[in-house]
Write a structure and sequence with these properties.
Protein name: L-glutamate gamma-semialdehyde dehydrogenase
Strand content: 15-25%
Structural class: alpha/beta
Mean pLDDT: 97
Catalytic activity: L-glutamate 5-semialdehyde + NAD(+) + H2O = L-glutamate + NADH + 2 H(+)
Radius of gyration: 25 Å
EC number: 1.2.1.88
Distance between the termini: 43 Å
Number of strands: 23
Shape: globular
GO molecular function, one term: L-glutamate gamma-semialdehyde dehydrogenase activity
Helix content: 40-55%
Largest sheet: 7 strands, mixed
Number of helices: 17
Organism: Chryseobacterium lathyri
């Protein structure tokens, strides 16, 4: 590999548009939003590069206005899953034989399309279908997805250039082959970037993919496929299906050519799929790769030396941006008694200024939760806290489903560190706070580590370096991404590789070379230039 190619600076983080009031970029985005909101969008599956329509149409609902009809998608059957698998396998040979730099060019072009003519479109689709405000849509569907595409090309070139040493008279090299068979990408509603990254990072390395996006994310998924097709992705390399989740998993995971699962979603679903793979292990041509990022019950612990304003701001941003629907969102906090009154006061001031409503108004900080089920789940936690003998709603606690699924940012204060909202994943704008005695710092660290089965993200706040080091060591297994004096959200591709352990996933670190290695099957090659002609070694005389 030439140094000229490997040193091309693909890996530069995409600049984030500020969308300040009155700016040209915010006017352009809102105009695109309104235009797309008024359209009746038709979303087909994409199998073997062709649009596939069926007799079953599912209406698209926007979380901020569940009565608004902005189109529909076509729901498929298990025959369409079979068709997608067959299309992927049929495309495999030619895609594998394409030079890696030719594959890379497709995804670099996709990144430039997203950064340019498709930027407003993919952001608006995310705002409409997933209820993200202008900033959250920008940092996700535009910037993070662009970063995934560009950084993954850079990681791929670095990975391919890593070769073993060779002794005198021999040449050792390794070939980074794609997996033998097809891969399966299952993606969530909450990040358009994740939904784009999971199938594309596998395809970039020569794999072929069946992709099942969340039914709550089909609008931005359509834009992703539009971009990839315009960028030159050959037919059959990535096949997008809208089918029943359980039936699709059963069909895909029973296929002898299934080679890898790239998953982001719930822990329960991932564990069920892992079990299916185990039950079918004797059927496969090769042992499948299993990569998953699942749930989180992410923590913030503040030391008595912490800065009050910094802690309060981190909790407001970390807990309530995108309605707490980030898998990294701050969901449980441990605040020392000496600071809690002041932290709470600052949080109340900030939270009282938060505007709530449709993403169409860029001044709204909080929008709607994703659907009715999420709304009802959040309402249940709030209502139970209001009547509990060991918890109370300290801030917020309102909700309204008359037009959209709106849950106001809520802080639950509890005297029981194992109260339900302190230990259960909620995925909504609800933060639970346990106030601990200042002298119980070390015991509270143990509590943080042992309370949840998850281990995704966590933060420690302190101005005392010894305390930071104590937390760093005590919580080494409590999170895959650890933050010091910052909120536990906002991992940036190329800067903070993302993933957690325990019940939070396989910790294969999206946004890094580590993840890409999982989608290769390495072949070691040794070539001897002058072969021995006699079996005898020198020690034989």
């Amino acid at each position: 590999m030439s140094k000229a190619i490997s040193q091309v600076p693909f890996a530069v983080n995409e600049p984030v548009n500020s969308y300040v009031p009155g700016s040209p970029e915010v006017k352009s985005l809102i105009a695109t939003y309104k235009k797309m909101w008024a359209e009746k969008t038709e979303i087909p599956m994409i199998i073997n590069g062709k649009e596939v329509k069926t007799d079953e149409k599912i209406q698209l609902q926007s979380p901020q206005d569940h009565a608004h009809d902005f189109g529909f998608y076509y729901k498929g059957t298990m025959q369409h899953v079979d068709d997608a698998i067959n299309a992927a396998l049929a495309a495999k040979k030619e895609w594998n034989e394409l030079g890696w730099e030719q594959r890379a060019a497709i995804f670099l072009k996709a990144a430039d399309l997203l950064a340019g003519p498709y930027r407003d479109v993919i952001n608006a689709a995310t705002m409409i279908g997933q209820s993200k405000n202008v900033h959250q849509a920008e940092i996700d569907s535009a910037c993070e997805f662009i970063d995934f595409l560009r950084f993954n090309v850079e990681f791929m070139t670095e990975m391919y250039s890593e070769q073993p040493v060779s002794d005198s008279g021999i040449w050792n090299r390794v070939e980074y082959r794609p997996l033998e068979g097809f891969c399966f990408a299952v993606t969530p509603f909450n990040f358009t970037a994740i939904s784009g990254n999971l199938p594309t990072c596998m395809a970039m390395l020569g794999n072929v993919v069946v992709w099942k996006p969340s039914d709550k994310q089909v609008y931005s998924a359509k834009v992703i496929m539009d971009v990839l097709i315009e960028a030159g992705l050959p037919a059959g390399v990535i096949n997008m299906v809208f089918t029943d989740g359980k039936e699709t998993a059963e069909k895909v995971l029973a296929h002898p050519d299934f080679a890898g699962l790239h998953f982001t979603g719930s822990t329960k679903v991932f564990q069920g799929m892992w079990k299916m793979i185990g039950d079918n292990i004797h059927n496969y041509r090769t042992y499948p790769r299993i990569v998953g990022e699942t749930g989180g019950k992410d923590f913030v612990i503040a030391h008595p030396s912490s800065n009050v304003e910094a802690v309060a701001t981190a909790l407001v941003r970390g807990s309530f941006e995108y309605q707490g629907q980030k898998c990294s969102a701050a969901s449980r906090a441990y605040i020392p008694k000496s600071l809690w009154a002041d932290v709470k006061k600052v949080m109340e001031i900030q939270m009282n200024s938060i505007k709530i409503g449709s993403p169409e108004d860029p001044s709204n900080f909080v929008n709607a939760v994703i659907d009715k089920n999420s709304f009802e789940k959040c309402r249940g936690y709030i209502d139970r806290a209001k009547v509990s003998g060991e918890a109370e709603v300290a801030i917020g606690g309102k909700y309204d489903d008359s037009k959209g699924w709106f849950v106001h940012p809520t802080v639950i204060e509890t005297t029981n560190p194992h109260y339900e909202s302190m230990v259960e994943e909620i995925f909504g704008p609800i933060l639970s706070v346990y106030v601990y005695e200042d002298q119980d710092w070390k015991e509270t660290l143990k509590l943080v580590d042992s309370t949840s089965p998850y281990s995704l993200t966590g933060s420690v706040f302190s101005q005392d370096r010894y305390a930071i080091n104590e937390a760093f060591k005590a919580l080494e297994n409590a999170s895959g991404n650890f933050y010091i004096n910052d909120k536990p959200t906002g991992a940036v591709v190329g800067q903070q590789p993302f993933g957690g352990g325990r019940a939070s996933g396989t910790n294969d670190k999206a946004g890094s070379k580590m993840n890409l290695l999982r989608w290769t099957s390495v072949r070691s090659i040794k070539e001897t230039f002058v072969s021995p002609k006699d079996y005898k070694y020198p020690y034989l005389g």
